[in-house]
Amino acid sequence: xxxxxxxxxxxxxxxxxxxxxxxxxxxxxxxxxxxxxxxxxxxxxxxxxxxxxxxxxxxxxxxxxxxxxxxxxxxxxxxxxxxxxxxxxxxxxxxxxxxxxxxxxxxxxxxxxxxxxxxxxxxxxxxxxxxxxxxxxxxxxxxxxxxxxxxxxxxxxxxxxxxxxxxxxxxxxxxxxxxxxxxxxxxxxxxxxxxxxxxxxxxxxxxxxxxxxxxxxxxxxxxxxxxxxxxxxxxxxxxxxxxxxxxxxxxxxxxxxxxxxxxxxxxxxxxxxxxxxxxxxxxxxxxxxxxxxxxxxxxxxxxxxxxxxxxxxxxxxxxxxxxxxxxxxxxxxxxxxxxxxxxxxxxxxxxxxxxxxxxxxxxxxxxxxxxxxxxxxxxxxxxxxxxxxxx
Amino acid sequence: xxxxxxxxxxxxxxxxxxxxxxxxxxxxxxxxxxxxxxxxxxxxxxxxxxxxxxxxxxxxxxxxxxxxxxxxxxxxxxxxxxxxxxxxxxxxxxxxxxxxxxxxxxxxxxxxxxxxxxxxxxxxxxxxxxxxxxxxxxxxxxxxxxxxxxxxxxxxxxxxxxxxxxxxxxxxxxxxxxxxxxxxxxxxxxxxxxxxxxxxxxxxxxxxxxxxxxxxxxxxxxxxxxxxxxxxxxxxxxxxxxxxxxxxxxxxxxxxxxxxxxxxxxxxxxxxxxxxxxxxxxxxxxxxxxxxxxxxxxxxxxxxxxxxxxxxxxxxxxxxxxxxxxxxxxxxxxxxxxxxxxxxxxxxxxxxxxxxxxxxxxxxxxxxxxxxxxxxxxxxxxxxxxxxxxx
DNA sequence: AATCTTAATGGTGGACTTCATCATAAATTC
DNA sequence: GAATTTATGATGAAGTCCACCATTAAGATT
Lengths: 391, 391
Description:
2 copies of one chain form a homodimer. The first copy, chain A, is of the alpha/beta class. Chain A folds into 3 domains: 10-79, Winged helix-like DNA-binding domain superfamily/Winged helix DNA-binding domain (Arc Repressor Mutant, subunit A), CATH 1.10.10; 83-199 and 355-373, ATPase, nucleotide binding domain (Nucleotidyltransferase, domain 5), CATH 3.30.420; 210-351, Nucleotidyltransferase, domain 5, CATH 3.30.420. The first copy, chain A, contains 10 helices and 15 strands. The first copy, chain A, has a 5-stranded mixed beta sheet with strand order 6-5-4-7-10, sandwiched between helices. In chain A, strands 13-12-11-14-15 form a 5-stranded mixed beta sheet, sandwiched between helices. Chains A and B meet through helix 1, strand 12, helix 8 and helix 10 of A and helix 1, strand 12, helix 8 and helix 10 of B. The structure holds a DNA duplex.
């Protein structure tokens, strides 16, 4: 009912102040004591004690004096992002992508390996293992340096991180992905829907950086969606939020097929290239192709407006493979949406490319760590010890 | 990025503890010092000081000793809900309903006045004024006792509380409702969509008390919806969340008309009674009526499943005028939803009746006060002084 | 009716945290 | 080299919480 206001001990106040300082340092970059005192709204003397505590714990390091200022040069302090590592995985239909980042979310290393949708589960898991190993060796980290791993997978992922159902990947439903990766790394592993992570990535570092309420539209041969509200990916009561694709009127699972039979596309074009060819023809002005695109956009708009009317976002981000053809899609989609919405959201194309999901996984991991590690109950734990296992 | 961890002064710690004690007292009812110390996780000595502070401020009062226990009888303390009043208004098409409650949300008085959808704006506002006055005199309160008023109105209400657009009520779009009521009461006035308030009421005190994620379906001659996520009504980027009714495929604005032309209903039945007659006939087993109900339910299910797939609720609550015929609607609607959802939500009928919106308005007001008054920044202000104007 | 048990109450001292203030130190600038 | 600017270090004061102990007030027992 009322939101939890927790006071407590004097030591707790100290913890609160330490966390406040740490948060200010993380958000505002390297700072002097005076700046930090101002941002955290604490006295200099207090901040000094707090910061020296944090340095002992390993969370904060002193930087080389920069000089260039007028008076006595102030010591500058920074958050030690290198204290731990976050691993982001994108397990898609055609590739497995691994990204290692520090606690600030800076990407340190990327590994990618191709897979096919038809591969059996064991082979795909082996590919995941190889990517994880390559990530570790490539970034010079050991398994114990990784504090949390987040894996994005297609399909409906429930609140416990189980892949309940996947249509895009063969033999993948109810795969024990978290256990598999967790056994290898010995850290907490979160599994999330890939669209949701992509949406988060666009919201944090992409086209939606200034927009907390958005719908991410994953368009490709299959279509999916994710919703972000107040900057937080919406999971819903069971993790199925955004799965508008199964609605009987929209049938987004096969909406990509609307882009098949167009005269302008030569017979014999490989299936994966058909859509691109249609877009290309539409770009050139081919009437048949434009008609196909319009039919496709109409269906997409119907589904999108249903979601938009439900959650009233400020922005719709067009992502996924077809977003490369945003120049052809954006305008007609915008026109269609205009006719169906009460408060038509803006429409923009994704900008993060194919590392989108992995970057979102890193963001998700960093934020999860923030919530659990930097917790007022436990205070900032020593940075050297890896965090306790959590889910 | 990181959620705000604010520490601060020693006095701030005291404020935090005072608020923590107050929150515990509000949530847990009257308590002894020992119980309170346990709930707020503070030492008895501390709680004692905090509580005597709160008594001086007027937030807490001592109760009569109850006795009946074994040892020395403990003094029991309670939150002084009577320190202020919250006014909830439901401005509907056919009635204006006013409810006065204390800060605990206990309803003290109710006033109702009939109106018609066709009445001009001035008449409707005059009716609102009369209801407000009757609420004050009826509950023995003066205008300055009312700390906040919340008005529920049909139509699209934006984030600033402006009624942007109303189709159900004539001459109502962009009415300056908050200003009008605020001028009369001299307190903050919030305006919200009525379905959203009804949803909140069901979530706090109705059929959904244990369910934080739900969709409230307002069914009647016109249909509307509202979404509650994690116990919070979803407004969206511009306050239009839940307005699925304007979607071209669902046309919920006139979905009630599907219940018109049924042979079992005698010609000449007044328009308002037709739907009820159809439901009655369907209840008796009339085939034509059952068919009409089924057609109606199909449309409703399409819209509901679109929303459900978007936000993945645990529950759909059937409310509004037609929910009186839930016995006829629930089962077919459940069956239809079953075929369209990935994770089919539970389906229940509203239980709060026609005071639903006003009760939701009170809940909303109480919770808004909790957020603004009981704010760690300002600490618990003296209870006697009415709160500063806020929006 | 006197005594025992139970549990709340009141008070004291100690430990801790934060803050304001002042004198000092280390750079740049003139 | 002096003046200026800014950071640093140290001290004392004030505020807050907690553990502990003796005291008080009621019901339960004999």
